[in-house]
Amino acid sequence: MATTQFDNVYHGSGKLLGMIRFSDAGLGWKPLDEGATVTIPAEQMTAFAWLRVARQFQLKIRLKGTSDQEEGEHVATFENFQRDDHAKLEQVLRECYDKPLETIEVSTRGWNWGAADVDEHDIRFFVKNKLAFSLPLANIANSNIAGRTEVSMEFINPKDQQPEQNTGAASSADALPFQGSKKNRPDQLVEMRLYIPGQVERDEAEDEEDEKDVKEEDQELEEEEEGEEEDGEEESAALAFHNTIKAKADIGQVAGDGILVLKEVLVLTPRGRYDIDMFPSFLRLRGKTYDYKILYSSITQLFLLPKPDEVHVLFIVALDPPIRQGQTRYPFLVLQFPREEEMDAELNLDEETIQTKYEGKLKKRYEEPTFRIVTNLFRVFSQQKVHVPTGFTNSTGQECVRCNVKANDGVLYPLNRGLIWVSKQPVLISYNDVHQFVFSRVGGAVASAKTFDMRVELSHGVDHTFQSISREELDNLNHFFAERKLRVKNELTEEAMGIKASVDELLGDDDDEDESGKRRRDDDDDDDEEEDEDFEAESDDDDGGSPSEGSSDDEDDDAVPDEDDPPKSKKPRT
User: Where is the composition biased (Acidic residues) (predicted)?
Assistant: First the structure.
């Protein structure tokens, strides 16, 4: 079996050079250094294309979609071919696979306007009928309408969201696919916005959606009926493009794969009511404005927390990588359910799948409170434990304390392995990252004596301060952290001891001043008595008192005498 080899070739967007060999059975690529070998059978390769890229020339191979194939692997690319390799490669492909090598002309005009075409696996942008660039649909995580004429597309590498084992580690630099400093991490396209003006006929947009998959015959019939009913109506070209992307981005998912649909679920972060469509490998949040696709492998932690009102419960989903809404990232989903709300749900799974794939952890039918059903589904699909508050109760018997972070009001839940503060943007702190907890009062002001602040000093990173915690929770928090052998510094106690010492010192000085003052008053009283006797002797010769002296006598009668002063003698009347 004759083989043809090309050296110094990259696989995909990787940085490892290797050699690629073609034979009648297929092709194989092997890196020069350590790394995985890539093999593609001949029967899976359907088309070949040659085009200019940043790293010389690229061989693009279209592959057949197979049931056991990973999402997004419908195209394989190999780069760094030289211009002189074109004739040799074209001959090899024709001899081994009886396929032509198509040459794709690439536009180099640099224009930022042109035409967009959405096919089965890619979005291709053309300028003057030449390809400007193409984007795999598998890398589109979300698409939204940003205004009436703009379409926003968010991208993420599906391989980065599917680690071999989801350990549930918190978001950190070690959890990222790239190891090393942040400065050396490669850039990645995360969002693109397209301006698409104009109107299109509604039935034309639906015809594009109908081409999604020939297997979805029932869905196509429904869409055709809707198109006939609304024939002649127009919609914006941006909305039509957005709907086409949504219809074709779910590669590998066909109608009937949905396990359960939860209608009108209240989501506090990002705020709104969403329909939650749960699939075997991912879920979709479908709102009026935004849609989100979330892989279960991106779920790192789950929390089930009771609200202080004792009427609702919060279900929090930690995500890594987070979902995006423009420039805003949401590393947490905060779902709220009424505690007493119940629902009847039947999963679109057979008993064999439940017992084999999910090890009997699911039930075919549920008749339970809604939050318990949702919690169980997320726990099984994401293979993560659900954290609940245990071991802490506040002064009123609840499992949380109210406090503020800057100007935002929220609720703090002390857990066994960390703290979570729930508000618009939750804050999660692991005890492993905590250096110490510091209890303090703002400025030592008397007005803040009923509340205190808790500062969480981390071993690395930015400290967190939780403000305006009720003074009644001090002992409960102190005892809770002490049981877990966490370092606590109580500046309130030190401040109180300092104040007490200052007060004792001041009181001691006051006692000395009182004794000396009393002695001075006693001496003054003796002098006053002598002066009074002289005054009375002189007044005997006087015919009467002045009006002011008479007024003073009247005021003395109404005043309350001082107990420390001896009573004054009155002037005898004649």
Answer: 203-236, 506-515, 523-544, 551-565
